[in-house]
Fold:
Amino acid sequence: MLFRPNPSSGVPIYLQLMEQVKHAIETGALRPGEQLPGIRPLAEELVINPNTVAKAYRELEHEGVIELRHGAGAFVAAGPRARKATDNLRAGQALVASTVERLRARGLSDDEIRRLFEAELAGRATASRTGGQRG
Amino acid sequence: MAEPLVIETQGLCKRYGARQGGSQGGIDALRGLDLEVPAGSICGFLGRNGAGKTTTIKLLLGMAHASGGHARVFGLPAGDERASVAIRRRTGFVSDDKDLYDYMDVAALIRFTAGFFPRWRADLATDYLRRFELPLDRKVKSLSRGMRTKLALLVALCRGAELLILDEPTAGLDPAMAEQVLQALVAHVAREATTVFFSSHQIAEVEQIADRIAILERGRAVLSGALDDLRARFRRIQLVFDRDPPDLVLRSPVVGRVRRQGRVISVVTSAGADPILDEVRALGAVSIDVSPVGLKEIFLETVAAED
Structure:
């Protein structure tokens, strides 16, 4: 299947799994109504704790991303949410592509561009926690 | 979601080699261990050699007697001989030397073991034999280390135990074999109502399959709890200054050493990033980075803090 959490990253595995399910939906790899792997087979395939998979599925259901049908398994929620997310992601991808092209044209290396993006995202995360001021 | 505790110790102490009746001399293997393992969890038990992991397991299984404190398994007192028999009947144990009858062949060992356990799961035995590709007619003595481990695990899994206690189940196995063992454990836990308590030096595998951990150092649990909770709390904060960094005196809990290297200071906190960020903002760093901390780093910093 398409999920690959990294247990050593320090990020809870259930959160990684949630992100990867959402990403799969946003890219269209999983479509509304499609079934997700069962808790047991997925835990066994990824060699992770079944409680972790169950926790990820519960949270995803809580967020309305998937539906847990008793006895039948987990399904991608049908609805406009998924489609809107896909459209947003496609638009964002185009924006990033043009920004990267312009930075390259200015003579920045891919590593420098990557660091700029990461610093911007990390800075934003810190700033949002601190109510806007930057360290 | 409070599950009942399958393993619980309070102030558990074990002193080896003390003279009869006296408290003089001897070595303290456990010095007040507090441990909680809820039902249905996979708990990884970490610690350096000599930290007291095997001693803990021996006390839980009634193979040694505590010098102080309490240990309960299924709510039963582990130090009581009759209770201990009941505990062992409900527990599957794989020792660090994967102790098995060497002179039997694989089929005979499985048949022999099955005879002792009324709740023996022949269906699982068939399944794991196939999964582990164990040769039925080979003598246990001539099995490779990996095969021997798998056989020991099969025997422990199939007795219908509610609790599995595994002392370094993947020690000495190649990565593919270790992954097979972990996969069998995960599959087992997903199907059967089982609690797993396993010691290991392989931090990566603990991170992979455990939902709880306990880190033992010099006979005490220096860190324990739900792994996701620890992952959420531990953060590394790196501060970069455009001058010599000031002295760092923090109220927030800092784990291990404050590292200083030129104009950079790096600390690990166990209380999330927010409180420490509030504190360090006044110091005037030109850059503040926050990153998650893996279990290996948590382990090393926690154990280093005890030195």
Remarks:
- Residues 128-135 of chain A have pLDDT under 50 and may be disordered.
- The beta strands of chain A are 66-69, 73-76.
